[in-house]
Amino acid sequence: MSDLVLVQRRDDVAEVVLNRPDKRNAFNWSMMQALDAAITQAGNMSGVRAVILRGEGRGFSAGIDVMAFDEIVDAFGADWRRNMFPVTAAFQNIVTKFERCPHPVICLMHTYALGLALELALACDFRIVSEGTIIGLPETRLGIVPDVGGTTRLTRLVGPGRAKEFIITGKNIPLDAAERWGLVNYIVPKGGLMDKANELVAEIRLAAPLAVTYAKHVINGVSEVERGLQMEAWAQAQLMGSEDFEQGAQSMITKQTPQWKGK
Ligand code: COA
Question: pLDDT tens-digit profile of 253-262?
Fold first, then answer.
């Protein structure tokens, strides 16, 4: 397996570790495939009571790797922007595997969890953040929309009024509000993520494993995610070929203010 995402087992806990710290755990396609293999492996482990997802290095993750489109060309063909559906579906399917994992998945976020990173966290069952972590879905500031479940799952969690404010503007979500709204379960002091996760796992152990799996699936099934994912894919198919997205992605890397053209 690729070392871009590691799977480590300790007793009845499987840890999935994002491991591309030099690029702030930004997700290129190789890393997405490694993530797919990792959650599949963790999900298939018997006797596991929880999966912990975390990021190695300075922060949890800076989201999609906006510079790694050569890999997308290799995987989906040179015309991928004109035929976005298979690309979006592939990313969505991998992230949805965290939601469908039979074990509860606890996401630990430190320093930053932006874009695809927060979308991934939203597909987990529990989210614990350390104080000062920057969380948000800044996609509209790049000229696109959160299309890997973020638009759908943030709306499901916090309601359309709050989701619109943060998705339309792309601004960061204040942690205290996120905790009040149930978007994050706990805010802990820096360095305290694993202790809190272990505490939560100890509580999960008190419940019967089969009942935990079924409870998770029932709660996920209460709201229909599938239609939202299709709508996200439709929106992104309109935006990915736009001049604004070219501009937005370049501006993110060069840390310039983009000049939007509306086309
Ligand atoms: N895509 C591609 N590369 C990225 C990246 C991303 N999303 N985020 C960071 N990187 C790269 C940088 O280009 C840099 O590469 P280099 O060392 O080859 O120059 C390296 O990771 C370190 O980034 P840097 O910005 O110097 O790190 P930092 O610790 O000062 O800041 C962040 C970290 C996450 C705050 C900052 O990188 C950032 O804002 N990234 C963009 C986040 C974002 O908007 N993501 C959502 C996209 S929808």
Answer: 899 999 999 9
Domains of the chain (ranges; CATH) run 5-190 (3.90.226.10)
Q: Which atom of ligand 1 approaches the CA of 142 most closely?
A: 48
The closest residue, in CA terms, to atom 28 on ligand 1 is: 24
Distances (CA, A) of 230 to 6, 86, 92, 114, 262: 30, 11, 10, 22, 24
Instruction: For residue range 113-128, list pLDDT tens digits in order.
Output: 999 999 999 999 999 9
Segments of the chain assigned E as strands: 5-10, 13-18, 50-55, 105-109, 112-114, 126-130, 134-136, 186-188
Q: What span, in angstroms and rounded, lies between the C-alpha atoms of 1 and 92?
A: 21
Q: With H, G, I as helix, E, B as strand and everything else as coil, classify residue 208.
A: coil
The token pair that represents 158 in the structure block: 């916090």
Site to substitute for ligand 1 among 19, 24, 67, most atoms within 8 A of C-beta:
24
